[in-house]
Please model this.
Amino acid sequence: MEAHAAKHSSTFDPGTASAMRYIPLLLLALASGCQTESAVPRDIVDAASARFQLSDKTGAIGVKELRERLAAGERSEAVVTIVGTLGGMPNPWGDDPSYAEFPFMQTSARLFLVDDTVVAKFASHTHSVPDEVCAFCASHAEENRDGVAMVEFVGSDGDALPYRADELLKSWQLKPGQRLVVTGKAQLLGDLLVVEAEGIAVE
Model:
């Protein structure tokens, strides 16, 4: 790749080096206009890995606290840092096919973080059969949507990239039950808390 060639070149070209900084954004901009594929191209995965790395995980707040701050009038354009669990509860949208892959979405780079208090609530309900579909838990999932945030990884057009988040963000090896830290700009869209991610890390 050109990036590797520039890195090992014996002559430093400031113009070339400056341009290299924008390659991840350029590749993700191209991806935002692509049709959905079952496998994410390697260059898109590499671009996402470079763009969404998060090194500073300090100052993170919970999903519910963020919702309360926004509801109280905190500026939505401010960058925030939140922490939560990837999933950790039954699907709060039930049989809605749009959310069938919770805590991911099948055809877009979105994932769902759940507040610690909600995760603890469902973890405290014991099941006689591990991993069973519990009717009691499922019936109480919808009423706990206020503890869920949808995190989006968007392209240059402002829309979520057309890949499953765990396939796009392979460097993080995302799995349900992980605790994640995310930075980005948050807003309330009706009852849904949405965060446009700028960085992500496994806690």
